[in-house]
Design goal:
11 helices; homotrimer; 8 strands
């Protein structure tokens, strides 16, 4: 895709969602559900969070996209998650996977191992999570190392190979979030700039980003959906951090900015940095 | 009731709650618990959210009112909800039912069908939910049609017959929330105006409204409780939307306004619109 | 400890947490998880909320501290909580216990009775909860009386004997939150002033305080950790209430203030009141 094609696809995705108010239901952690739902609504989408296996199955059949975040697994997730993902695949419903807490328990590991067969449309995580998932799926060498619950202990750049391996395997998109954000479909590799350090001082911006990616899956390819949500978060975060410098106010301004961004803003201010070797001529 | 009697009863309910700080415990969805609790506190009430069947039974015996919202059903709700409702009836504790997600699963349908025998003091929902519940309880003809999870796909006016049928059946009150809000006890029919389009851009205002209705059930009849909460939300929403135009700021200003409204404000600014045929001479 | 030693220890704890970004995972209620996590992040810590027994066991082994709040018990807590606490003890991981809802059900009572053998580093609660726990553990005489769910019906001063009895038993610290806050390790007894009446108009400030105490357990003794979190909440609450006078804005300003307080602020503005007999010469 050329730069112009990417900008145009992003603009179209933003517009479509604002017009159609699509719902991307979620199985997601209890800590950040409010933030995820409000972010989904702010960009023009609609939200519903679910726990029951049969409800996830039935809504996966009619929803245009889905979001799965394993942040606060409960015992019944052992039934809910596999059934939901099975239904998503049967209905070819696109979905975003956020492998939060990968490695914390055998329940999570078992479920995430099963997910290998169900190729999520987008895998979104911090560097540690992306590396851990690529190892779990046997796509990169497991040289040991630890994952620290929900926080990243790795730089985004360190997850590049893992992200590309995952994207090549799924044939869809992978997004690594951090100070900069790396988005790839296994061929294109884009490193996005923007955002704010204040994202690390509030809880759930990663979850909200995953939930918004699922909203854009209703209107664009996985790669464009991941890119659209990523650049919107970066732009809204930059704007909010220019207005306030403390975390709770930042969260309010961030959501407000997410709501106010126009399709033109998003597409025109989409910024790429070229610090990775594969980027040198991307927008050259 | 005359207009003067209604305004006086609303004023009294607002005052009583601010004086007595009554608690209305909830079984409610995990997404919006924070919003529900903060709205209940803002009007002067107190909050507690519960999941365990025996805790709901024991608190239903001592609480002056209760709120049940089925938004994010979990497997153990199959035991918790029927036991809670049984205890509420045994103790004649008034309660508000929010039939969110009606039709999504057999668990929800089974429980909501059982609730027919336990006549909630207030049923609050959007138009789609009210219509679906009236159909499930066999009170209006089921001509098919779909309910879309948590969002309304119907206009408030389309739920008028369903709301009246439900209210006649329970002998209590029903509130349909939307761009305008319809409140009925089966005899009186009031359509309230106000609020803001921004309510649709934040998650949980319907849940918060149901939770606040439960607070007013401690101080007024179901009809007055539903009316008081509805007009407070409309007034606070109108005020907030006059101050800010983006959703996250709107939510903060809305809760602040809910806290600041006086009993006189609420009773005097209570606005009714007469666009439905039965309204023509209501406040004439 | 002298006043100077206490101020110095508080200052050090604030600095250490901002530098090291320690994680205190939680088993905590679903209503206020967002507030707890954001408060933990605002002071420089890191958050993770968990439900599964084996996850709690494995994270208790590596986390530097832990927070347990029983606000919204779910059926599987019967397994999760005892296993978590067992793992905390085996690994000598310090933890804060918030006995919310004590007395509401046999599940809570059974679990809290078991906790007597596992001596929490800090017990934090309102006066009613502290009295109820001291009675449940047989440390003070049970003359009857009621606990009202999550709200305190008792004055802080009425819980003084219970708090001291609990602290003598655990050999660690107990904090009673209310209009004033009492912190004791069984020997030192400090009554802190500050805060704002607005804390009672938002949900979860007690939970957030408990969660932040757990963060400071990674950097200080239980007594200093409880004192540091208490004075930070009082100072940030006073500051926020000087800026705004409505609850939702207060919550935003409070979290922002928590983030902005420096170690010097916290240590120098640490205010003690001497209204209890044991206090007369504390800072004399």
């Amino acid at each position: 895709m050329t730069e112009t094609e990417i900008r145009s696809a992003i603009s179209q995705a933003v517009k479509d969602v604002r017009e159609k108010n699509p719902m991307a239901p979620s199985i997601t952690n209890t800590v950040t559900q409010d933030f995820v739902a409000n972010a989904q609504l702010a960009v023009g989408g609609s939200a519903a969070m679910l726990y029951l296996a049969d409800e996830c199955e039935s809504i996966a059949k009619i929803a245009p996209a889905f979001y799965i975040n394993m942040g606060t697994a409960m015992p019944f997730y052992a039934e809910t998650l596999p059934k939901a993902v099975q239904a998503l695949q049967s209905n070819q419903t696109p979905w975003t996977l956020d492998p939060v807490g990968i490695g914390l328990s055998s329940l999570r590991t078992d479920i995430l191992r099963q997910f290998k067969n169900f190729k999520p449309s987008i895998v979104r995580g911090n560097a540690s999570e992306i590396i851990a998932l690529a190892k779990l799926w046997g796509l990169i060498e497991d040289s040991g190392g630890q994952v620290r619950g929900v926080d990243s202990t790795e730089k985004v750049s360190s997850a590049k190979a893992a992200a590309i391996a995952l994207a090549k395997f799924t044939g869809r998109a992978v997004a690594v979030s951090g100070e900069e954000d790396f988005v790839t479909d296994g061929k294109e590799e884009i490193l996005c700039a923007g955002g704010s350090e204040l994202f690390t001082k509030i809880t759930g911006s990663g979850c909200a980003l995953g939930g918004v990616m699922a909203i854009y899956l209703t209107a664009a390819s996985p790669f464009i959906a991941a890119l659209t949500a990523t650049t919107m978060f970066n732009q809204a975060g930059t704007k909010a951090a220019a207005e306030v410098s403390t975390p709770a106010s930042f969260k309010v301004h961030f959501l407000d900015s997410l709501y106010s961004l126009t399709a033109d803003d998003v597409a025109n201010n989409f910024r790429v940095v070229g610090s990775m070797e594969t980027m040198f001529d991307f927008f050259g």
